[in-house]
Specification:
The structure holds 2 protein chains of 2 kinds.
Chain A (H helix, E strand, L loop, with lengths): L21 E12 L2 E12 L3 E6 L5 H8 L7 E6 L2 E2 L5 H8 L2 E4 L11 H12 L4 H14 L16 H12 L6 E5 L7 H18 L2 E5 L3 H6 L3 E6 L2 E6 L1 H6 L3 H8 L1 H5 L9
Parallel strand pairs in A: 3-8, 3-9, 6-7, 7-8
Antiparallel strand pairs in A: 1-2, 1-4, 4-5, 9-10
Chain B lengths: L8 E6 L2 E10 L4 H17 L4 E12 L1 H16 L3 E5 L6 H8 L14 H39 L6 H11 L4 H23 L7 H40 L2 H7 L4 H38 L5 H11 L2 H27 L5 H32 L3
Classes of the chains: A alpha/beta, B alpha/beta.
């Protein structure tokens, strides 16, 4: 069998990773602002093709880790490897090539407010791809429908959209270039439970159809339970537990235990009533 | 693998059947090529209608959304032409993506329509006229709201936000002193230099003192300061209030029972009305100093002569005319800046547009009002 067939979308580019191998490899990261150390020697692997849920207390540095991997926050020490490439040693061109292979959904959507939905989604396409306007429109509509929006949203301005629609459009933009890794920063926060459930299904479907690797920062126990293959918990600036939901439930760490055995966890059906 | 790369989509005829053979990587990076070959295939279908077709995709190595969209185009065309067709050889893992795209609606909502230039021009005139009238109304109603807030504060002085006012006084007044002093000093220097240069021809060099004195005290001091304040503090007010509006902070104030005009606008306005006359005074002195310095160095007019000449040239009313205008200019700049800030909408673009509008309108009105004042003072012989 040809080696390149093993990758989800059959891409053959630098740093191809076999499924089940780490696609993101974070080692001994230290990040701090001023005197405050947020991440203190954190290490984490994200395997190719999985959905990894990342949990932690508010203000604990979940978003900081995401931003560090994306290169938006300066780190004091440690290494981040994405697709087997150390992001600190890449040239400008290599970095551009890498950045078009990941998509990011920011917490507030971060849609460009002066552009329409269509222009927002086409923005990365124009930059990186050579496509005819007609094809770009078709692709835009396809992306919009993939994230569950109707095509007539295309001409709207971001300020005319509801919170849930903004998330969906932002997801469509993150998917514009068919990325291999998708970063989601609290994708279901601010959505009603039904909307959040739909969003979870959407992410699971997209992950299967597009063969994505998903790194998801979340507080939503339902999401963790239903869509995540593995969960990593952050505490004291380190990963204190990592594994499928069973590992989390069995963890002896007080914070992890409290998180996954709390009232909300019971409501989400992660642990049955009375099982403690 | 052969050295020659197979085309992305080749079309062949097998008896009465059309055969499409896909190869290679059907990925977004191949966009143009892929679209070209599919459109060629579509032309083939249109040129010679057939009854059945087969799409053989066993050679396709990579497949992303773009590949699916392009393939979908082919599928749509075949369905429309009423051709029976089957897709063979597409790897199973690519199938869900294709299904997802095929089941889409294939609508393409029209873009916002562009009107033609002439019609657009007429429309623009109409819109601008309406917008200007609305602007005037908005300013009027905003002045009303601010005056109402002011009256409430006068009735209950303890509700005035004194801390906020002093903070803005420091930012708009104290921190502006160095730049205002520098600029008015330079303006004074330039006026004196030009005056001496041209008056010399008539042997009337000493009249430069009259010119510097009257020009700066009556007009230029207050104008320069107002324009500087509009650019420096007015724009800051608009941007601050605008971003507060964008992040619903203004709404938060309102639902907590505070009047944003009272909490946000009034302290800024009062701070400006105090700061601008003070800055105007400082500016006037610096301009006179600059003028005197140049008159001494360049024109050979000693400081003693300059001062005694100045005493003769200007009366107290020259100084008063300038100073009286200062609080009005401050009110214009402050009101317009705050009003524009409160009108910012949801987008970053709107913030920029309103900040620009605030500065431009404030400077324009400052100059217009200065002209009105000039007419007024001439009429009352001051």
């Amino acid at each position: 069998m040809h080696a390149e067939l093993d990758t989800p979308a059959g891409r053959h580019e630098a740093g191809d990773i076999a499924p089940g191998e780490p696609i993101i490899r974070v080692r001994d990261i230290v990040v701090g602002f001023g005197d405050r150390v947020i991440l203190n020697g954190l290490s984490l692997d994200v395997m190719k093709g999985e959905i990894l849920g990342f949990v932690g207390a508010s203000g604990g540095g979940k978003s900081v880790l995401t931003r560090t991997i994306l290169g938006l926050v300066h780190k004091r020490s440690g290494t981040v490897e994405v697709f087997g490439q150390n992001i600190d040693t890449l040239s400008y061109e290599e970095r551009r090539q890498l950045e078009r292979r990941w998509g990011v959904l920011f917490q507030q959507g971060a849609l460009f407010s002066s552009l329409t939905v269509r222009q927002n989604i086409q923005f990365p396409m124009r930059e990186y791809l050579d496509l005819s306007p007609k094809l770009m429109d078709e692709l835009t509509i396809a992306k919009l429908e993939m994230v569950g929006l109707s095509p007539d949203v295309a001409e709207k301005a971001p300020s005319e959209l509801s919170g849930g629609m903004i998330k969906r459009v932002a997801l469509a933009r993150a998917l514009a270039l068919d990325p291999e890794i998708l970063f989601l920063d609290e994708p279901t926060s601010g959505l009603d439970p039904i909307g959040a459930g739909e969003f979870d299904d959407l992410i699971a479907t997209l992950q299967q159809t597009l063969g994505l690797t998903v790194f998801m920062v979340t507080h939503d126990l339902d999401s963790l339970h239903t869509v995540c293959d593995r969960i990593a918990a952050l505490g004291e600036g380190k990963v204190i537990a990592v594994g499928p939901i069973e590992t989390m439930l069995a963890s002896k760490h007080p914070w992890v235990s409290a998180y996954f055995h709390g009232k909300r966890a019971r409501a989400a059906g992660i642990v049955s009533e009375g099982a403690r | 693998m052969g050295a020659v790369e197979a085309p992305l989509l080749a079309t062949a005829r097998n008896g009465r059947e059309l055969v499409f053979v896909g190869n290679g990587r059907w990925l977004a990076v191949q966009g143009r090529g892929l679209e070209g070959s599919v459109d060629a295939a579509l032309a083939e279908i249109a040129a010679a209608p057939t009854e059945s077709a087969r799409i053989d995709l066993s050679g396709v190595r990579g497949f992303d959304t773009l590949g699916a969209v392009v393939l979908d185009r082919l599928i749509q065309a075949l369905e429309k032409a009423g051709v029976r067709f089957q897709i063979v050889g597409l790897e199973r893992r690519f199938r869900p993506l294709l299904d997802e795209i095929v089941k889409g609606s294939h609508e393409n909502p029209p873009r916002a329509r562009h009107v033609n230039a002439v019609l657009g021009g007429i429309q623009l005139v109409g819109r601008t006229t309406v917008a200007t009238a609305q602007d005037a109304m908005a300013l009027l109603s905003f002045i009303g709201a601010v005056v109402a807030a002011m009256l409430r504060v006068i009735v209950r002085p303890q509700t005035f936000r004194f801390t906020s006012m002093t903070y803005h006084l420091e930012r708009t007044g104290l921190r502006a002193v160095p730049i205002i002093a520098l600029i008015t000093f330079l303006i004074g220097c330039i006026i004196a230099q030009q005056g001496i240069f041209h008056f010399r021809k008539f042997g009337a060099t000493t009249y430069v003192v009259d010119m510097v004195g009257i020009l700066t005290l009556r007009e230029l001091g207050v104008l320069i300061v107002s324009i500087m304040v509009a650019g420096r503090s007015g724009s800051a007010f608009t941007a601050e209030l605008g971003s507060m509006r964008m992040r619903e902070e203004v709404d938060a104030l309102r639902v907590m029972g505070f009047d944003p005009n009272e909490v946000l606008v009034l302290p800024r306005l009062v701070a400006l009305i105090i700061a601008v006359p003070l800055l105007t005074f400082i500016g006037n002195m610096c301009a006179l100093f600059g003028g005197g310095l140049v008159a001494w160095i360049y024109g050979g007019i000693s400081p003693e002569i300059f001062i005694s000449r100045l005493k003769e040239a200007i009366a107290l009313n020259t100084f008063e005319v300038g100073m009286i205008k200062a609080p009005f200019m401050a009110a214009i700049v402050g009101l317009i800046a705050c009003m524009e800030g409160m009108r910012v909408g949801g987008s970053a673009e709107s913030l920029g547009a309103h900040t620009t509008a605030a500065v431009v309108k404030a400077i324009f009105l400052v100059i217009v009002v200065d002209g009105l004042f000039a007419m007024f003072f001439a009429a009352i012989d001051m």
